[in-house]
Write a structure and sequence with these properties.
This protein is of the alpha/beta class. It contains eight helices and ten strands. The strands form two sheets. The protein has an eight-stranded parallel beta barrel with strand order 1-2-3-4-5-6-9-10. A two-stranded antiparallel ribbon has the order 7-8.
């Protein structure tokens, strides 16, 4: 793919003739870390959205992450729902390589709570994971398989972990949901939940090698999180992470594949970590623009996937230009089906992007 210049928009000194050079602010200009500079050079990444959310969409109406509030009332996807008969992470990464992705982020645990690795936190008997699947293919450590596929094809791996939502543990927006529990859900306190999160992240950050990107969807609010990142993954870029951590990036503010113009690499320390930023911001935090290959923000495969509009390569190339060309990285989604494969018609579009 063609690569527009991804210039870092850093506030410049304003020099007046005959006067001393001054800045727009008395605060020193924030300087990017080498890791942030390297990340901006990657330009294109892949988000791979897949898991129990995909499997459950075949049998349940969508609600809180696709697991409840259907016509028949609340419902929790039993572990038997997950059965990826033809799981092929190599095929996922081959598709990512086709459209030029330099890194890939995989949803190790989305808001269903289903863990796609054999998690075993000491503080809680966490039985909603691949380790407890009754099917042979369902027992595969998908995180491990994903990492191996990335290494095989020269793509830098990243991990998505949703802190704020866990339907298995009845957590929504980082709070215990005060409703009656659905069969299969567990009852935990917020303190116990925070412990589970930190233990699971420790597993992901210590058992699978160096990660290029850590993705917190909606951010995170656990006070010691920066200590854990610095200890276990100090070279990772972190999306919407703790402000104390130096290698941060932010959300661009929408999932339309378009960055605002102008879009600065700096923000003010007190503002939300998303949006267009500030030309004289106090923190260096470049943006990432994400979008889906299907319309209507369809991140996960669902049973009506074929009825949802598929973007063509011209539209996606325009998304590339309106993200990378506006000083952000471009993160394009892949949505493997319940069997564990990217759809053939999606693959054709990714391949067409390679030829642009």
């Amino acid at each position: 793919m063609m690569k527009p210049n991804n210039t870092l928009l850093i506030p410049l000194l304003v020099c007046l003739s005959g006067l001393v050079c001054i800045t727009k602010s008395s605060i020193p200009t924030p300087i990017p870390t080498p890791i942030q500079v390297q990340w901006t050079d990657f330009e294109i990444g892949a988000m791979i959205s897949w898991g129990m959310e995909t499997s459950a969409s075949n049998v349940s109406d969508t609600g809180f992450c696709g697991f409840q509030t259907g016509n028949n009332g609340s419902w929790f996807a039993p572990i038997e729902t997950y059965d990826p008969e033809f799981l092929d992470t190599d095929q996922w990464i081959q598709n990512a390589v086709a459209f030029g992705a330099q890194y890939a982020v995989f949803t190790a645990k989305h808001c269903s709570g289903f863990a796609l690795w054999p998690t075993n936190p000491k503080s809680f008997n966490y039985t909603y994971s691949v380790a407890y699947s009754p099917s042979k293919m369902g027992q595969i450590d998908v995180v491990k398989s994903f990492i191996k596929s990335c290494q095989k094809y020269g793509v830098r791996p990243g991990i998505y972990y949703g802190v704020n939502n866990n339907f298995y543990l009845n957590i929504k927006d980082f709070a215990v949901v005060n409703t009656s529990y659905v069969a299969g859900q567990q009852n935990v306190s917020m303190q116990l939940y925070a412990n589970i999160v930190l233990e699971q992240l420790t597993e992901l950050w210590t058992n699978y090698g160096e990660l290029t990107e850590i993705w917190f969807d909606g951010g995170e609010t656990i006070p010691v999180m920066d200590n854990y990142i610095n200890k276990y993954q100090p070279k990772a870029i972190v999306f919407q992470g703790p402000q104390q951590y130096p290698n941060l990036i932010r959300w661009v503010g929408s999932e339309l594949g378009q960055a605002p113009y102008p879009c600065w690499s700096t923000i003010d320390s007190g503002e939300d970590k998303w949006g267009s930023g500030q030309d004289n911001g106090t923190l260096f935090m470049p943006a990432e623009t994400d979008c889906t290959i299907r319309s209507n923000d369809r991140w996960f495969w669902e049973d009506d996937y074929y009825q949802v509009g598929l973007k063509n390569s011209t539209e996606l190339y325009e998304n590339y230009e309106l993200s990378v060309g506006r000083n952000t990285n471009f993160l394009l989604n892949l949505s493997p089906d319940p069997y564990g494969m990217v759809e053939a018609e999606d693959s054709l579009i990714y391949k067409e992007l390679e030829d642009r």
